[in-house]
Amino acid sequence: MSKLFSPFSLRDLTFKNRVFVSPMCQYSAVDGMPNEWHLVHLGTRAVGGAALVMTEAAAVNAAGRISPDDAGIWNDTQREAWRPIVNFIRANDAVAAIQLAHAGRKASTYAPWRGHGKVDVQDGGWQVLGPSSNAFSETYPQPHEMTVAEIRAVIDDFAAAAKRAIDAGFQVAEIHAAHGYLAHQFLSPLSNLRGDGYGGSLENRMRFTLDITAAVREVWPKQLPIFIRISASDWKDGGWDVSQSIELARASKKLGVDLFDVSSGGAVADANMTIGPGYQVPFARAVRRHAAMATGAVGLITEAVQAEQIIANGDADCVFLARVLLRDPYWPLRAATELGAMVEWPDQYKRGALTAFGK
Question: What is the pTM of this model?
């Protein structure tokens, strides 16, 4: 009996298996509007057998985009553009999830294939915000240190975006507090140099993320789950680490968060990361065990047996896959066959369904 292809429930929502599609920026939106590319990209992963399909980072306001080409959900027109995408995902037996995000000091940068570093205002860029005025690197924009009023406005934007997401039919909201984006910038002492109630102590550095969480939980239906994506380590001395991540998970759980999507890195440009297959799984295991929080494992998880062991060993409750699903959108269907799990193929594809003999 495959653990990877066993059901998993959070609140009133049951996922048909433990294979989740990780947020992957597509840099293919205009004015934050998702389009046919997003429908095909996300819809194909739903057809491919994943239990949850999550959008790329959807900016809660225009200044929160990583690049001018990022998707958003800061207005009602964008909400309506997401609706047919959500409907297709759900019609194909997958849970539709949205990642709510603000890039902070890492905003106003180029899509990877268009350039590197900051996009100047004359080229469509904008003034970026951060907890402090220190830039991510020499090639990134110089942030404006946020006032308390600006902090509260962004928290309100997260709540408003969550309301739109519910109206569009999304079933899971994930708050993006990883990879050096705005919430992570507040968490990490390497990027947060504030001296007020949003900086300094661990309690103060967690305040922004927890305020966002409380605001989103207030508008999100009680029967539906909320995730938070974190970077469990900055991979640099003096930065955010696993022990602080556990404390954040404990505090978040009290506010009604149901799962931590555990990644790492992104806070600083000179991090010294050690990368290999499943290299972030120990972070998910630590948060799960010490905070009694459901977790998702991410990072170079590519093989069916590898993913199965993560779940079977109790390291995480689900796996979030990214690049391997770009190469093979039907990875879940193939993995189920490899593991001997019985899963339902779409009617339209049953003529090509794999068997134990690959025929």
Answer: 0.97
